[in-house]
Amino acid sequence: MGRLWGYATIAAMAIGAIALPATSRADGFLGFELLQLDGAGVKWMTTSNSERPLTLTYALLDHEQTFDEARNCDGMTPLEPALSRSGIDKDHLEAELQAAFAMWSAVANINFRQVDSGTPSDIVIGAQMRPIGYAFTDVHYRRSNGGINAIDRSLICLNPQRRWKIGFDGDLGSYDLRYTIAHEIGHAIGLDHPGASGQMMAFNYDERFRQLQVGDITGVTNIYGRRTDGTGAAEPANENRGAEYASVPTR
Ligand SMILES: [Zn+2]
């Protein structure tokens, strides 16, 4: 039984922003939590391509598709029509996706490349056929004996019945697309929730920051190593590279 589905989820309920910077946490709080599935950590070790450094491909689903054994993302439809109801078109969707992936590749030694929907991809993004909560990630992995489990596919599915937005407007009942996708990518590459708030991987949606926080950065570099070759996405890289060493303001 080498192939199993695990899952992780973004909280379905948003709470108001609590002014609690990560640095005020109890001693020993690391600000990140590694995803544990089947009693062991998980990470991407190989991908559907052979690119080095590790390059994961992602695709927007362009037709209805079911994924056996998956949980919340077992049935997905294209995300684009769902988002167009929120006034978000394909160009903006792709730009926000790119920005969300770039956050992670800017700080850790892992790359992401969008491929056409028809091409098999490591990460598949779509809308839920059975709308629930806001967004989920299903992580498919191969169990290893005593080691780290190898992720070989991740599914990210958003609830098409919610209203989605780009940017913050103070309405915590409507989630920013980039923030949500960045959070789900964190799950897709092996991170869990470190707590309720203060990090992008925290399980409550809030609008105090729209970049990875120090715990998120520590977590992803713990798994994939720190980006050192300077090939990460240019724009967020400078911003985040500073944040890796300095304390990150929490707004
Ligand atoms: Zn989550």
Structure characteristics:
Collagenase (Catalytic Domain), binds zinc ion, single chain, two-stranded antiparallel ribbon, 251 residues, 24% strand, alpha/beta, ten-stranded mixed sheet, 5 helices, 14 strands, disordered C terminus
What does this 3D model show about the protein?
- The protein is 24% helix and 24% strand.
- It contains five helices and 14 strands.
- The C terminus is likely disordered.
- The chain is of the alpha/beta class and 251 residues long.
- It has a single domain, classed as Collagenase (Catalytic Domain) (3-Layer(aba) Sandwich), CATH 3.40.390.
- Bound molecules: zinc ion.
- The site of zinc ion (ZN) has 7 residues, from strand 1 and helix 3.
**What is the arithmetic mean of pLDDT?**
82
Give the ordered list of helices and strands.
EEEEEEEHHEEEEEEHEHH
CATH architecture: 3-Layer(aba) Sandwich
Content-based structural category: alpha/beta
How far apart lie the N and C ends?
45 Å
**Mass-distribution shape:** globular
> Could you say how many structural domains there are in total?
1
What is the CATH topology descriptor?
Collagenase (Catalytic Domain)
Bound molecules: zinc ion
Distinct helical segment count: 5
The top-level CATH class is Alpha Beta
